[in-house]
Design a protein that fits this description.
InterPro entries: Galactokinase, Galactokinase_bac, Galactokinase_CS, GalKase_N, GHMP_kinase_C_dom, GHMP_kinase_C_sf, GHMP_kinase_N_dom, GHMP_knse_ATP-bd_CS. The chain has ten helices and twelve strands. The chain has helices at 75-87, 111-127, 133-148, 155-162, 204-222, 235-239, 244-268, 275-288, 295-306, 332-345; strands at 4-16, 26-43, 47-52, 58-62, 94-101, 167-172, 178-182, 190-196, 311-315, 322-328, 352-356, 363-364. Helix 5 (204-222) packs across helix 7 (244-268), helix 7 (244-268) runs antiparallel to helix 8 and helix 9 packs across helix 10 (332-345).
């Protein structure tokens, strides 16, 4: 067991399957080449000391004193992982951790899950704690839920820890079953264009929690364990007696789950071009039924589709963040310029645009990488 090491974990893009993970549904993310890197060293004094190259100040406190509310800000994602591991009886002591990374902050690309995942990998390996990647994802999610106070599902942590290069990760969030499905748009002459809209997140924490409450209430009224259990074939009849807002929430979750399964079938059949309409339908559902888009996201999607993209949708929790679109490689520049022009017309902040590839999951960066399950 070594005393120090360098560990990194990627951010993620969710190809499709938004707001389905906390409804026991299906998701289809990829990992990004953008990572959070944690340089870690064990300490013998029982102190957790955390610093970041992207933030001022140092957080330092005794590991034994960790508790929800004691640490705030970005350091809470690190401290929360250590707290969960100790709460669950794992022999974790003091650490010095230096954080660095290039996952865009505030873009909805799960920089927080990348930080949690890199921390979990570092602390467990250097402490001699042997846990598989699914367990690490669960621990990281618990840290975000209970220590940070963000009621997220498990998609982001799973993508960061379990993803494979040139593959999408089909995850059943109820059973934790996974399937690595080939996803390499370039092989079909395509590109996955990402637009960071730079839209400030608006009321995201409260609205995210409100959507979860709506889903729980709808499931209770429908007498099902989760909205995943609603049959799409009976959807219109099922939602007829629900309040209008809850009916729309159910409609999004049920149809989005089916879109994930349809997308997975297309990727297995190497029919990547046909993903486009599913992406655009997903965005319409998120806009109209789930109500988590903002003008910047909608303008970006409309501009991309008008410029010839095969399909486009917001990705992440919404209320700001990024849009993804599937485009012909030859159309990347034209689609990029169309979005920039549309944002200028609306007097929005200029967006960042770049193409993404499916990258590997979390790994130890100072050794030869190993398979990520």
């Amino acid at each position: 067991m070594t005393r120090d090491g360098v560990f990194e974990a990627p951010g993620r893009i969710n190809l499709i399957g938004e707001h389905t993970d906390y409804n026991d549904g299906f998701v289809l993310p990829i990992a990004l080449p953008h990572t959070v890197r944690v340089t870690a060293a064990r300490r013998d004094d029982g102190v957790l000391r955390v610093a970041s190259r992207q933030a001022h100040g140092v957080a330092e406190l005794r590991v034994a004193d960790l508790a929800p509310g004691v640490v705030t800000g970005w350091a809470a994602y690190v401290a929360g992982v250590v707290w969960v591991l100790r709460e669950e009886g794992h022999p974790v002591g003091g650490f010095g951790l230096l954080v660095d990374g290039n996952v865009p902050l505030g873009a909805g690309l799960s920089s927080s899950a990348a930080l949690e995942s890199a921390t979990a990998l570092a602390v467990t390996e250097l402490s001699g704690v042997d846990l598989d990647r699914r367990e690490l994802a669960r621990i990281a999610r618990r840290a975000e839920n209970e220590f940070v106070g963000m009621p997220c599902g498990i998609m982001d942590q799973s993508a960061s820890l379990l993803a494979r290069e040139r593959h999408a990760l089909l995850l059943d969030t109820r059973t934790s079953e996974i399937e690595h499905i080939p996803f390499d748009p370039a092989a079909s002459g395509l590109a996955l264009l990402v637009v960071d809209t730079k839209a400030p997140h608006r009321l995201v924490d409260g609205e995210y929690a409100a959507r979860q409450r709506d889903c729980r209430r709808a499931a209770e009224q429908l007498d099902v364990p989760a909205l995943r259990d609603v049959d799409q074939a009976d959807l219109d009849g099922v939602v007829r007696d629900l309040p209008e807002r809850l009916a729309r929430r159910v409609r999004h979750v049920v149809t989005e789950n089916q879109r994930v399964l349809d997308a997975a079938d297309l990727l297995r059949a190497r029919r990547t071009r046909e993903l486009g309409p599913l992406l655009t339908a997903s965005h319409a559902s998120l806009r109209d039924d789930y109500e988590v888009t903002v003008p910047e996201l909608d303008v970006a999607v409309d501009a991309l589709v008008a410029a010839g993209a095969l399909g486009a949708r917001m990705t992440g929790g919404g209320f700001g963040g990024c849009v993804i679109s599937l485009v012909e490689e030859s159309a990347v520049d034209a689609c990029t310029e169309a979005v920039r022009a549309a944002f200028a017309d609306h007097r929005f902040t200029a967006p960042d645009c770049w193409t993404a590839t499916a990258a590997p999951g979390a790994r130890r960066a100072d050794r030869v990488p190993t398979a990520t399950a």
